[in-house]
Structures
1.
Amino acid sequence: MLFHSTRGKDSNKTFEEVLMQGLAQDGGLFIPDYWPEVNINDLRSCDNFIDVAKHIVPLFTDSSFDRAEVNKILDKTWHDFEKKDYINIFNINETVSILELFHGPTAAFKDFGLQLAAAFFNKTLQTQNKTAIVLGATSGDTGPAAIDACKEFDLIKSFILIPEGNMSEIQRKQMTTVDKNNVYPILASGSFDDCQDIVKKGFNERTFLKDDQYLLAINSINWVRIVGQICYYFYVSLKINKLSEPLNFSVPTGNFGNVFACYAASKMGMPLSKIVVAVNSNDILDRFFRNNDYSKNEVNETISPSMDISIASNFERLLYDFYLNRDAEMCSKLYSRFPENSIHIDQSIWSKSSELFLSYSSDDISTYKCMQYYFNKYNYVMDPHTAVAADAVRSLKDALVSKTVILSTAHPAKFPTALSNASLHTDMPNKLSAVLNKKEKAEKLSTNDNSIFEYIKTNN
Ligand SMILES: *Cc1c(COP(=O)(O)O)cnc(C)c1O
């Protein structure tokens, strides 16, 4: 199984090359050359998450790692989770379940993708006898999960840009209180977009790298993160009905990585009814699925900060595979003019959206109301990201015929201000309260000059 770019100019890549490269050379995103099929009958005999992962992950890695090697990696990949089988499924009623993906060390679902990424980064670096720099920007949960996943691997140094603004104190402290000499949190002047621009520049210029050193991307353009997430879609389908009936999934969405993992699982044989693309007031995806209008707006700050985006990078993979039938030339053409020109596709192609997708945008007020509704009715406290997806399900319920799974992407205790604004309370897991009391250490740097690159070079 090899990989190629959605823009057609970077192809025949192995899993390892895609893992270590991140973004394709032509600016596109890597995608597998074909969708591998999962043997559903074999999968039905699995009884835990790791077993499921062992049926999924090797389908993507065979160009670089043999199966026995991958199985050995998977036995150790996911660690420091609070639940024995990593995931909890909470049944709200007969038709709606909540897939709790926040029991990992950083209390957000990003642990699933980033722990898998770190495990394969480390394996590759060991084999090639090289080191790596991780450089990334975070709006809240990516940074903590990347730092935590990489911190035990001495071959990797992590430099994470923390923008000014909207993330919660706990999210920030998860990054600034890790006392490790391969972890470098940077409090950057500027917005998330400013930080992203610096990261992009860093990947282009690479002035701070040593010879023979990798620069690793940890945002969800990295295919390995999607692979880690595909696993839990199969897992929950197995747990709920042994993969016998299609389910609906409601996904709180930012960069579209999690939705794309759901779509990928269905291409690999998982029964699927509808995907509900649930967004906050940053509604570019909702505008696309409702009106065929994919156009960039200013970012709004909301109470679900990990979904505050102006464009959804993984949407390019869906456009390429689902709408454009893998026409790389067309995909490249649309993106070469974006975001200056918005993306509208042929109405006849766009109309196939409704086979698979529903979308909904929930503003902060209705997100708060939804959090309160689930508490009053079911005694269940959910975080604001999860509530965006739950709100979508409430409002689209007439269009959802089969059972629905709401993805819960963060522990509610990560967002104490939002919780208290909704007059709700939850106990804080020890791993989060411990962070609050630790001393913060981070470098304050400007995004307006080269100081961030100089800082990386000095500490490399
Ligand atoms: C990252 C994140 C999301 C959005 O996931 P995407 O894959 O970017 O769509 C949703 N909720 C939480 C809590 C997150 O951290």
Note: The two ends are 35 Å apart (CA to CA).
2.
Amino acid sequence: MSTAEAIELENKYGAHNYHPLPVVLDKGDGVYVWDVEGKRYFDFLSAYSAVNQGHCHPRIINALTEQAKRLTLTSRAFYNSKLGVYDAFITEYFQFDKVLPMNSGAEAVETAIKIARKYGYEKRNIPEDAAKIIVANDNFHGRTTTIISFSNDPDARKNFGPYTGGFASIPYNDLDALEKAVSQPNVVAFLVEPIQGEAGVNTPADDYIRKAKAICEQYDVLLLADEIQTGIARTGSLLAVCGNCTCEGHCERQAETYTRPDMLILGKALSGGAYPVSAVLADDEIMNVIKPGQHGSTFGGNPLAAAVATEALEVVRDEKLAQNARRLGNIFRTEMQRLVDKHDILKLVRGRGLLNALVVNDAPESTTAWDICVMLKENGLLAKPTHGNIIRFAPPLVMTEDQLMDCVAIIEKTIEQYLETRG
Ligand SMILES: *Cc1c(COP(=O)(O)O)cnc(C)c1O
């Protein structure tokens, strides 16, 4: 099948809920993907950071296929031989008492919201139906009806109402606004991304989350960290809330920069892209408000997911992916800054670890970022614009320095080509 044929099929028979770059991928291995014509690309999106461990990581695929031959789904009506082992493993890895396993990221966010509300009513005596959760402007937490109710992205919201109540939005990276919000009555939680990925790798002050946690504690408000995109080594530490700590999962959590959220929300790279796996982690005091029958999912905690996620996390630790992301991220931002200094069309580079964005110096409505991404594709590198005129760069964390420098050369050449064609 050709690129044109595959695109035509999707257009004709699939809902048009995405606007993909015109490339049809057929195969992946590590940092590379190949299209149906056999052309090879560097993947600089990593499926929105789900493929941190690289495409088709042999260890993860082996765990997947071995478990798939044995047992895939039991439902939670029965116990299975993998889930308890995984529960013990992941809670040790992230240092929480308990885990609640789900599938997609949005489901995990919904789970955290439900637990936070229930905790508010049962442990803090919030009056019935009055619980309020604070969120940040320009957030992205998924696509369910409740989650889009507190989005301020018109595309995500418009004509999907009526909206779920009980949320209030404040500016991101604004501690005064946070203190004002959480000091109001009936606030149970602050739900926040440590770096706003979809909003354009919106990177707050280094101490934002740490200070936000201190404010939340003062008012007995839970901090819910959505690390679906920033977590699992992407930003140069195991979690973005780890700050400068580069250990790989068995941390004593004594690094000065570590901030412990009350709930940790994970997804995406929890499976290395092999399978939808998400999770909420919290301590007993919080997690025990959920009793049998009160929350669940048919596929949540299935043995296939448990086997895949365990291996995916082992790979992150064994291959020291956080350290690699940190080291390569520093090199990448230095190189991009060089391009920013050279070309007016580029406004700035920002990010942490290997979650970075190049902000294009053009009107947000212009197609500059899109046009550059199309040219990057022609030159063998796949990236996607995010909101406004911003290009996110998030390669798999198994990249080598040589590969990264090849990619920098592609980006540099593409910017120069773009400026030539534009005249
Ligand atoms: C991707 C993402 C989600 C939603 O995850 P899905 O698996 O697409 O439902 C939620 N929060 C953040 C920060 C994300 O990046």
Note: The domain at 59-318 is CATH 3.40.640.10 (Aspartate Aminotransferase; domain 2).
